[in-house]
Amino acid sequence: MKIENPLFGLLSNNNSDTYNLLVQSFLFVVKHGTPKDDELEELGDEIVEKWKKLGRRLDVSDAKLHEINQAHDQLSEKGYHMLKHWKQEKGPAATYQALCDALKHKFVQRQDLAVQFCYINGNYALQIVLNGSEMVSVIDSISSVSGLEP
Fold first, then answer.
1. pTM for this predicted structure
2. Domain 37-118 has CATH 3.50.50.60
């Protein structure tokens, strides 16, 4: 018995609304739990100039941001120590969801990093977001995982 996959009907329009719906619905599932220190260190390397703006969105105090700024020379270290402080200070509330929301905030605007660090299969999803022409292969991948046929 062949099961009809509704995703394939969406492809016929091939427009950005369809693409965004596909990506949001099937690729962007936020991880549960708290980010690991290795992930925070890697994110610190990526966030560089926006580390303070991200810190404010994560409710790190201006006094702590100033302290971190004075204690470290490299932007990547500032970002990492800010993120580590956030995790220690917030405990179980320092979730991937909170980090994702902060990265996507209008003052930070690093949706790419939200995808890379906060979503399940983030690196794969990021590849797809950056290369919309791979939409068909995404559908094929989803189909093979779900067992649905085009």
1. 0.66
2. no
